[in-house]
Amino acid sequence: MCTRAYHKGADVEQIAAAARNANPNATLHVAATIEDAVRVSKELSKSLDRGIFVAGGLFLAIEYATAAKGGRAQELEFF
Fold first, then answer.
1. Which of 9, 12, 15 lies closest to 58 in space, CA to CA?
2. Phi first, then psi: what are they for 51, rounded to 5°?
3. pLDDT over 90 (residue 46)
4. Residue at 4 is within a domain
5. Has residue 2 been placed in a domain?
6. 65 falls within a domain
7. What is the pLDDT of residue 49?
8. How far apart are CA 10 and CA 57, in angstroms?
9. Which ranges constitute the DSSP H helices of 1-79?
10. Is 6 inside a domain boundary?
11. Which residues fall within 8 angstroms of residue 71, CB to CB, at 6 or more apart?
């Protein structure tokens, strides 16, 4: 699952390209927002009976956790 953080996130297509370059055989999903990534990753986790591991920067991890708990990640203020 590739997405971008609201705060200082890289372009999602660049993230996906880097992931494809690192592992051309990987199955990738691109989500436009953290909220979309949370929704799709939860669906995939349930259907595949697997856990969710969030990799990326600190902002992405905090935003993902906030959205996963029903919060509004785009309203977080880091500084």
1. 9
2. -85, 175
3. yes
4. no
5. no
6. yes
7. 96
8. 10
9. 12-22, 34-48, 58-68
10. no
11. none
Q: pLDDT band at residue 55, thresholds of 50, 70 and 90?
A: confident
Which whole number is the average pLDDT over 42-54? 94
Exposed, middle or buried by CB within 10 Å (0-12, 13-18, 19+), for 10? Answer: middle
Whole-number Å distance between alpha carbons of 47 and 65: 20
Rounded to 5 degrees, what are φ and ψ at 2? -115, 130
* Adjacent-strand bridge partners of 2: 30
Q: What pTM does this model have? A: 0.87
How many structural domains are present in the chain? 1
- Distance, in Å, from the CA atom of 47 to the CA atom of 70, rounded to the nearest integer, reads 21
**pLDDT tens per residue, range 18-42:** 999 999 999 999 999 999 999 999 9
Q: Residue 79: pLDDT above 90? A: no
- Its domain, for residue 21, covers 12-75
